[in-house]
């Protein structure tokens, strides 16, 4: 499969030669926020102050748009940089480093003032991507000169000679162990650099055709998008070997970013959507998230939102944070449906709910997005998976709700409490209560009955084969006398409705 390289600029995508956008209706109709930016936006990175920096590579732009991720609005005027800016990364000191692919330099922006600090740091030929290591150095991939330039972000000067890597290097990311992983489009592999010594540690880890971007997950694994085979390859940054089989995603995957919750977001340039991968299981979760035209770059903000640059629609799509689902209460109900339930979790705004694959009704989400009330649909007997779906993804409680056959009404009969007052003493051998199924007419064995008088719980007993529960109770009879008797209660089950009865005091 062709990677649609622009003539004269190996490895650079041409806005006029991109794969056709998907025309079929998306699986999910979403209401994502869309932010217009400059022409042909490519890279995106988020600064410590929460602002997102978007490179606009079109001939009429050559600048960087700043987005406030709290309000999803553009901040100020675009910041002019070099020619055809591609990748951007923000150092811990708040400086943003922009790789300008046609002017062969890097522009440094102060993200506090959104002004240019250093207009041009000369690097290699066709710089396209940049990442910052924990030691403060920025690593810039130079696609035509097949090397990586190192920049000291304190002095904004080049460190040492360029580091040779594979053919047509593109993406770069730095793992917590200090190793930098460089994707080489031309040689179909990844080179590993030791950022402590700025030397090549592993010359080549073979990957699928045209590896584009790379991102590091919280578990330390590197996730590499392969443009040709439409997959993501996982690399262990401990052993520098490939983990498992490639993960199928959409058509022509490009940008990759991993959120702190371990969800990896992969831009699919050919299908205009984003695939979400759970990095704990290395499996795709939910359905693809439709975005704008030919998505390319992706970044995760501290507030959990995901920002995707769309190269042909000249905008940025904002994906909400991934939802979580913690509990459903109650967790059982009849197969006929109609059970009011409460679901708790996070990022649930706008959610739909399915139970056993069937949509729940009467959905209401609280303003904080942490609680949903809904009514269960009809379902088949047995356990059913509960799933919430938002614009940001989906979350499930596997077998979280159990459908039981329609509930039967029950009756509970309590025998009177006995008291012999003449001659002057009392006796109270036991309390009894009998449980009966009103549909079958049969006694119900094996169920727990709770006995109490007033606010005092006397104890519990289990019904026998005749449906009768007996509680030996002689010590607290004065309480029973004082409260005019006792109460027996059956809490109910998934198939039996609750019932209760009152036992009077009988004085023969």
Note the main attributes of this structure:
Immunoglobulin-like, mainly beta, 508 residues, five-stranded antiparallel sheet, disordered N terminus, 1 helix, Methylamine Dehydrogenase, Chain H
Explain this structure.
The chain has 508 residues and is mostly beta strands. Helices cover 1% and strands 53% of the residues. The chain contains one helix and 50 strands. β30 and β31 (306-310) form a beta hairpin. The model is unreliable at 1-29 (pLDDT under 50).
| CATH superfamily label of the largest domain | YVTN repeat-like/Quinoprotein amine dehydrogenase
CATH hierarchy class name of the largest domain? Mainly Beta
The CATH architecture assignment of the largest domain turns out to be 7 Propeller
CATH fold title of the largest domain: Methylamine Dehydrogenase, Chain H
Question: Which secondary structure elements does this structure contain, and how are they paired or packed?
Answer:
Elements: E1 5-6, E2 9-13, E3 33-36, E4 41-46, E5 51-56, E6 63-68, E7 73-74, E8 79-80, E9 85-90, E10 95-100, E11 105-110, E12 115-122, E13 127-132, E14 137-142, E15 147-152, E16 157-158, E17 163-164, E18 169-174, E19 179-184, E20 189-194, E21 199-206, E22 211-216, E23 221-226, E24 231-236, E25 241-248, E26 253-258, E27 263-268, E28 273-278, E29 283-290, E30 295-300, E31 306-310, E32 315-319, E33 324-329, E34 332-334, E35 340-346, E36 352-355, E37 358-359, E38 361-365, E39 371-375, E40 382-390, E41 393-404, E42 410-414, E43 417-418, E44 431-437, E45 448-453, E46 456-462, E47 468-471, H1 477-482, E48 486-490, E49 499-503, E50 505-506
Parallel strand pairs: 34-41, 43-50
Antiparallel strand pairs: 1-2, 3-32, 4-5, 5-6, 6-7, 6-8, 9-10, 10-11, 11-12, 13-14, 14-15, 15-16, 15-17, 18-19, 19-20, 20-21, 22-23, 23-24, 24-25, 26-27, 27-28, 28-29, 30-31, 31-32, 33-35, 35-39, 36-37, 36-40, 38-39, 40-41, 42-44, 44-47, 45-46, 45-48, 48-49
């Amino acid at each position: 499969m062709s990677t649609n390289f622009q003539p004269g600029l190996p490895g650079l995508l041409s806005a006029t030669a991109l794969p056709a956008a998907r025309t079929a209706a998306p699986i999910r109709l979403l209401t994502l926020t869309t932010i217009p930016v400059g022409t042909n936006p490519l890279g995106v990175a988020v600064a410590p102050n929460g602002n997102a920096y978007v490179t606009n590579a079109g001939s009429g732009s050559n600048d960087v748009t700043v987005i406030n991720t709290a309000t999803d609005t553009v901040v100020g005027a675009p910041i002019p940089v070099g020619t055809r800016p591609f990748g951007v990364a923000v150092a811990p000191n708040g400086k943003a480093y922009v790789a300008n692919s046609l002017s062969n330099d890097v522009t440094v922006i102060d993200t506090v003032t959104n002004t240019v600090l250093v207009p041009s740091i000369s690097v290699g030929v066709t710089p396209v991507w940049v990442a910052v290591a924990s030691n403060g150095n920025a690593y810039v991939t130079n696609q035509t000169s097949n090397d990586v330039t190192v920049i000291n972000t304190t002095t904004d000067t080049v460190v040492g000679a360029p580091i040779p890597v594979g053919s047509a290097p593109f993406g770069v990311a730095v793992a917590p162990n200090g190793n930098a992983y460089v994707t080489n489009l031309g040689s179909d592999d990844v080179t590993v650099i030791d950022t402590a010594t700025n030397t090549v540690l592993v010359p080549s880890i073979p990957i699928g055709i045209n590896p584009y971007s790379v991102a590091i997950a919280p578990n330390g694994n590197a996730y590499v998008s392969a443009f040709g085979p439409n997959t993501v390859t996982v690399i262990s940054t401990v052993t520098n070997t490939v983990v498992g089989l490639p993960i199928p995603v959409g058509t022509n995957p490009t940008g990759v970013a991993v959120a702190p919750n371990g969800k990896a977001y992969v831009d699919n340039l050919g299908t205009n959507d984003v695939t979400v991968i759970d990095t704990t299981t290395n499996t795709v979760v939910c359905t693809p998230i439709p975005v704008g035209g030919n998505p390319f770059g992706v970044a995760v903000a501290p507030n959990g939102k995901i920002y995707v640059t769309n190269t042909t629609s000249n905008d940025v799509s904002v994906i909400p944070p991934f939802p979580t689902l913690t509990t459903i209460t109650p967790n059982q109900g009849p197969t006929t449906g109609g059970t009011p339930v409460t679901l708790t979790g996070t990022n649930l705004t706008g959610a739909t709910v399915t139970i056993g694959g069937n949509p729940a009704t009467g959905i209401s989400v609280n303003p904080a997005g942490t609680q949903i009330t809904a009514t269960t649909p009809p379902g088949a007997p047995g356990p059913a998976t509960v799933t919430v779906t938002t614009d940001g993804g989906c979350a499930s409680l596997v077998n979280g709700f159990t459908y039981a056959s329609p509930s039967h009404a029950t009756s509970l009969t309590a025998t009177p409490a006995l008291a012999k007052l003449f001659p002057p003493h009392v006796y109270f051998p036991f309390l009894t209560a009998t449980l009966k199924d009103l549909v079958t007419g049969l006694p119900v064995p094996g169920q727990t009955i709770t006995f109490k008088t007033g606010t005092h719980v006397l104890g519990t007993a289990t019904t026998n084969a005749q449906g009768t529960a007996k509680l030996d109770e002689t010590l607290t009879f004065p309480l029973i006398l004082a409260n005019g008797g006792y109460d027996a209660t059956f809490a109910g089950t998934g198939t039996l409705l609750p019932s209760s009865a009152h036992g009077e005091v009988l004085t023969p």
